[in-house]
C-alpha cells in the first residue's frame, strides 16, 4: 500500500528578482516500509520537496498545484493544527537545520523523554530507558542525556536529533543529508543505524543526498531529480545495472565508488538551469550529449520503460547506444565544446 503519493506537484518561490519554479509537475509514490533516495545536483529541488511534505516551506515558498497524499489524506489541505500533529506523531525529519531545534534551556535527555511521553503511556523511567537505548544505538553514551545542547559538539547534537526522531516510531522518516555535519568515520555507521531502525519500525523513508553511492547502499528505490523535475525513478538495483536517462548515465560516471576501480571519472560539463528563467524542452538538454531539436522544444513526459521504471527522455529506444557512448569522455567533450561555443556566441 502507498503511504505517500505526490501528484503533479508545483512549488514556487517568490523573490525580488521574480518567481522561481523549484518543483515542476513532480509525481511519485512511496510504499509502506519503502526507502527512496532522492538525488540530484545542488538546487534541483530535493530539500524543497522534502519541506513541502512537512509543510515547512519558508514564507516565500508555496505549493501552487498538486497534491501530497499521506495515508489517504491531502497534506496540502490540512490545517496548521493537523499538520502539527502529523509532525509530532507520523513524520520525522532529520536534517542539519534540525540541530537548531534543540531547546537550549533543557537537557537533551529531558527533551527526548518529553517527546517519548507525549507519544506513549511510558512512565518517566521507561522513557529514560528507551532514550538510553536509542542513544546507545546512535553511538552516544547514556550520560550525555544529562547534557545541555551547548555542552555537545555539532556531531553529538546531530546524533541526538536522530535519536529523538527515531524514538517516536514515525511512519515516515525524511532524512535530508542527515550525516553531512558528521565526520566521515561515523557517517557510515550512523547511516546504517538509521536504516536498521527504519527497517525494524517498518517506517518508510525519503533519503536526500548528493551522493548516489550512499543511495546504492541504503535505499530500495532511487529518484533522480534535475532542475525541479523527476528524470528517472526505479529500484536502485536496476538503476546501477541498467540506467536509462542520459543524466543518470552522467551521474554514474561521476561517482568514484560506483565506477570500477581504475575507470576514469567523467564529470557532466556545464551547470543546472537557472529556474528563474522560463524553461523550454527537456531540463537536461543543455548538458545532454544526445540532444536533438525535439529535446530543445518539447518537455518529455515520464514514461514507463520497464517494471516500475520511469524515465523522462524522448529516446528510450536509443538507450543501448547512450549507455555505450556515455562511458566515453569524448562524448561529454562534445557538450563541453558546445557550451564554450554558446558562451562565445553570447558575448
Ligand atoms: N527560500 C528560497 N527562496 C528562493 N529560492 C529558493 C529558496 N529555497 C530554495 N530556493 C531555490 O529553489 C531551488 C531548489 O532548491 P533546493 O534547496 O530545494 O534544492 P536542493 O536540491 O535541496 O539543493 P541542495 O542540495 O543544495 O540543498 C534552487 O534554485 C534554490 O535556489
UniProtKB/TrEMBL annotation:
It is a peripheral membrane protein. GO terms for biological process: peptide transport. SMART domains: AAA. Keywords: ATP-binding, Cell membrane, Membrane, Nucleotide-binding, Transport. Its main location: membrane. One of its GO terms (cellular component) is plasma membrane. Residues 6-252 form the ABC transporter domain. GO terms for molecular function: ATP binding; ATP hydrolysis activity. Pfam families: ABC_tran, oligo_HPY. It is found in: Cell membrane. Belongs to the ABC transporter superfamily. This is Oligopeptide/dipeptide ABC transporter, ATPase subunit.
Amino acid at each position: 500500500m502507498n503511504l505517500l503519493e505526490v501528484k503533479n506537484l508545483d512549488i514556487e518561490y517568490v523573490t525580488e528578482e521574480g518567481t522561481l519554479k523549484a518543483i515542476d509537475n513532480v509525481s511519485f509514490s512511496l510504499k509502506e516500509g519503502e526507502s527512496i533516495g532522492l538525488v540530484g545536483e545542488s538546487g534541483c529541488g530535493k530539500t524543497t520537496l522534502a519541506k513541502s511534505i512537512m509543510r515547512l516551506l519558508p514564507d516565500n515558498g508555496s505549493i501552487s498545484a498538486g497534491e501530497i497524499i499521506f495515508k489517504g489524506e491531502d497534506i496540502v489541505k490540512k490545517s496548521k493544527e493537523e499538520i502539527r500533529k502529523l509532525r509530532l506523531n507520523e513524520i520525522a525529519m532529520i536534517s542539519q537545520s534540525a540541530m537548531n531545534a534543540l531547546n537550549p534551556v533543557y537537557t537533551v535527555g529531558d527533551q527526548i523523554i518529553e517527546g517519548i511521553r507525549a507519544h506513549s503511556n511510558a512512565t518517566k523511567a521507561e522513557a529514560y530507558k528507551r532514550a538510553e537505548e536509542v542513544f546507545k544505538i546512535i553511538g552516544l553514551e547514556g550520560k550525555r542525556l544529562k547534557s545541555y545542547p551547548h555542552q555537545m559538539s555539532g556531531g553529538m547534537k546531530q546524533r541526538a536529533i536522530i535519536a529523538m526522531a527515531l524514538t517516536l516510531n514515525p511512519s515516515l522518516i525524511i532524512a535530508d543529508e542527515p550525516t553531512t555535519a558528521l565526520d566521515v568515520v561515523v557517517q557510515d555507521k550512523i547511516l546504517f543505524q538509521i536504516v536498521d531502525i527504519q527497517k525494524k519500525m517498518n517506517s518508510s523513508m525519503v533519503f536526500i543526498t548528493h551522493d548516489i553511492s550512499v543511495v546504492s547502499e541504503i535505499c530500495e528505490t532511487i529518484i533522480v531529480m534535475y532542475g525541479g523535475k523527476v528524470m528517472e525513478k526505479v529500484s536502485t538495483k536496476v538503476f546501477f545495472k541498467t540506467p536509462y536517462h542520459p543524466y543518470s548515465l552522467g551521474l554514474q560516471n561521476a561517482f568514484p565508488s560506483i565506477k570500477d576501480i581504475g575507470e576514469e571519472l567523467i564529470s557532466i560539463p556545464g551547470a543546472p538551469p537557472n529556474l528563474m528563467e522560463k524553461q523550454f524542452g527537456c531540463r537536461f538538454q543543455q548538458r545532454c550529449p544526445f540532444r536533438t531539436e525535439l529535446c530543445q522544444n518539447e518537455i518529455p513526459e515520464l514514461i514507463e520503460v520497464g517494471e516500475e521504471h520511469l524515465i523522462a527522455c524522448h529516446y528510450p529506444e536509443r538507450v543501448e547506444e547512450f549507455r555505450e557512448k556515455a562511458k566515453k569522455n569524448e562524448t561529454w567533450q562534445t557538450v563541453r565544446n558546445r557550451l564554450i561555443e554558446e558562451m562565445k556566441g553570447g558575448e
